[in-house]
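Bumping my old thread because nobody answered last time. Still need a sequence for this structure:
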């Protein structure tokens, strides 16, 4: 799906909804440990900058959520329990959501009702 050269760095844009997701996750973690919340945000940003910017081709569509794959989404594990959902917008990677893997992505992303929830880590 990528059109770039092997060693090309890609531009990544984190849209406001994904920024809010990251902020909300950090606020939740901060309830128990502000230091862990700061580390979480730093780790997520580092993983995006170290891996996704350089190698978006390692990402696959979210198999557990075919309706997201049909919309062009890719899944990228940004932390132990969190994934980023992103799409290509021209040559720019747009991260639309950063979600906990155990949340109901079908409800969050507007999938069809009645779809049985699957584990996105599959």
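Sorry it took so long. Here it is:
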């Amino acid at each position: 799906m990528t059109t770039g050269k092997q060693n090309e760095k890609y531009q990544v844009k984190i849209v406001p909804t994904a920024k809010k997701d990251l902020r909300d996750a950090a606020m939740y973690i901060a309830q128990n440990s502000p230091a862990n919340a700061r580390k979480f945000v730093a780790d997520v940003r580092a993983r995006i900058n170290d891996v996704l910017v350089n190698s978006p081709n390692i990402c696959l569509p979210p198999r557990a959520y075919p309706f997201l794959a049909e919309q062009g989404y890719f899944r990228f594990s940004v932390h132990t329990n969190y994934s980023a959902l992103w799409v290509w917008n021209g040559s720019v990677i747009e991260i639309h959501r950063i979600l906990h893997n155990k949340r109901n992505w079908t409800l969050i992303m507007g999938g069809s009702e009645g779809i049985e929830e699957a584990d996105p880590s599959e």
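DSSP finds four helices and four strands in the chain. Let me know if any region looks off to you.
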